[in-house]
Amino acid sequence: MSKPAVAPSERMLPDASKALSVLNSVFGLPRFRGAQAEIVAHVTGGGNCLVLMPTGGGKSLCYQLPSLLREGCGIVVSPLIALMRDQVAGLLEAGVKAAVLNSTLSWDEASEIEQRLLAGDLDLLYIAPERLLTPRCLAMLSRARLALFAIDEAHCVSQWGHDFRPEYIGLSVLAERFPKVPRIALTATADELTRQEIVERLALNDAPSFVASFDRPNIRYEIVDKKNAQTQLKAFIAERHPGKAGVVYCLSRAKVEDTAAALSKAGIVALPYHAGLDAEVRARHQDRFLNEEGIVIVATVAFGMGIDKSDVRFVAHLDLPKSIEAYYQETGRAGRDGKPAAAWMTYGLADIVQQRRMIDESPGAEAFKRVSFDKLNALVGLAETTQCRRTRLLGYFGETPKNSKCGNCDNCLSPPNVRDGGVIAQKLLSCVYRTGERFGAAHLIDVLTGRETDRVKQFGHHRLSVFGIGVDMNDKQWRSALRQIVALGHLRPDSEAFGAFKLTESSRDVLKGNTAVMLRDEVPDVSGRRGTSRSRQKSALSPVLDGSSPAHALLSALRAWRSEMARKHGVPAYVVFNDATLEGIAVSRPRTHDQLRAISGIGDKKLERYGDALIALVRSDTR
Ligand code: ADP
Ligand code: ZN
């Protein structure tokens, strides 16, 4: 696209309508979302700012549009090469002059891009931070006309953040070297501490923060007690989301493989995805997930960055993520189309122990470990809460919802029974104390329930006063109580003796009865814990995605066509058109270019390039 992104007659329009007109002609979008308009106006006017918006909220437009509206080229700093490449592919599809500078380019390719930058022939240039910070690159930038600096994934600058990248620290040089070029920092995940650090390091002290709500009201949060995770998962998918696309996260590659195999055996189309697989296999699995319907991808956290698939109906966690930030980001990949979606997690005592152990054994400094423990504890708090999960989640990001009950999480839909667990806790803590703080769950429960196992006799624990004081509860109930008491911090996993539990500072008060301990009742159901009946889920399904809908055949044809285009152009499918746009076409069945142009996601360039093919597809679908 040539620099005046707006037609000459529009040059005289006030900024706001200019922005709107570019939004429409280039990106094919009818209106701004949330704070986008305000942010675009602010940055276009030359202001710095910090943008906090959840994944999928629409951060990219906040710097892409000002780059088109201002003189010069917008420089985008992003840590992920694949993400940069896809963004640039998407911009090129929309007719924007965009390029990327990274280590995968040859010298010739790189110098051609540099020439274009200096000649004023680029609207947007994506650069990896380590490259940007080389003296050579900085010198080149100071000779170019720059519209702005966008620092994407800005939380990477924070040592307290969950994704610290040392190369980001050097970005503080931007404010010093280019004081007149506006800086816009963007992130989807930042607690208060991280936020402060971004502001400090990028010198945004006097700049406003635009904080969008992190609420994703269509996502139903549900966290269930882990029994047999794979069985629970199979039931969850088969009963609640049969034939739907979803992502299942596991911690290890082995577990990914194992889970994918188990799901496949149960007749669910499931594909593994992790860093140990061949790049080619990974690409194929991702491609199928994006283009076919109802594929479940089982993955380590390596999967998902930059994936823009709108109809993911569920995200399931078989293992506890590291932090609420990670949980939020991963679950955020569900339901981007705004239709009902589920974030489901199984969680048990072993998860807490395992995660604590990973932190303990990590090579990081003490201060870093402490932060990691705090982050883990916050997530465990979310898993254990008997209150609304959404309220808790948003509270973590500094938001207080108007309503303290969301009505769309497991705890709201069927509030758990909570009872005074003081005596239970005292029995358990006494048992830990009397057995010398050296034993794990199985042995403690043997002693409490009065089982004379060999081990119990070997240590003489059948003679202790605590032997058999817990016969009124079964193993499952004791495990649940133990997990909750660990989560509450009244016991902690021993960092040296694996599996053993030790007393904590707060144990004393519990033993004395000075601290109330509220415990949730163990709930017997296996698959979908409390409530959430199948019919309720069904009725909420969109007509388009329902296999019997008339739009369905056309949608399949459109998807197949999109795959072909994507392959031909060597770009991911969603770069050609996203799901929402294809659905728009399938439902409204446009017959003319004007009708097609009215659909969200079809700008001038795409209309020109694909318009005839799309209309031919609609016409050939006679039903
Ligand atoms: P983020 O970077 O915040 O994760 P993106 O910028 O990738 O989000 O946008 C996510 C999706 O939302 C994209 O498919 C994009 O086309 C869409 N989107 C962004 N802004 C708008 C808007 N104003 N109207 C409609 N769709 C939008
Ligand atoms: Zn709720």
Can you walk through the features of this model?
There is one protein chain. The protein has 623 residues and is of the alpha/beta class. It folds into 4 domains: 204 residues, P-loop containing nucleotide triphosphate hydrolases (Rossmann fold, 3-Layer(aba) Sandwich), CATH 3.40.50.300; 195 residues, P-loop containing nucleotide triphosphate hydrolases (Rossmann fold, 3-Layer(aba) Sandwich), CATH 3.40.50; 105 residues, Winged helix-like DNA-binding domain superfamily/Winged helix DNA-binding domain (Arc Repressor Mutant, subunit A), CATH 1.10.10.10; 78 residues, HRDC domain (DNA polymerase, domain 1, Orthogonal Bundle), CATH 1.10.150.80. 46% of the residues lie in helices and 12% in strands. The chain contains 29 helices and 17 strands. It has a 7-stranded parallel sheet with strand order 3-4-2-5-6-1-7, sandwiched between helices. Helix 13 links the parallel strand 10 and strand 11. Helix 1 packs across helix 2 and helix 25 crosses helix 27. The two termini are 39 Å apart. The N terminus is likely disordered. The structure holds adenosine-5'-diphosphate and zinc ion. Adenosine-5'-diphosphate binds next to helix 3.
List key phrases describing it.
623 residues, alpha/beta, Rossmann fold, Arc Repressor Mutant, subunit A, 4 domains, 7-stranded parallel beta sheet, 6-stranded parallel beta sheet, 29 helices, 17 strands, 46% helix, disordered N terminus, binds adenosine-5'-diphosphate, binds zinc ion
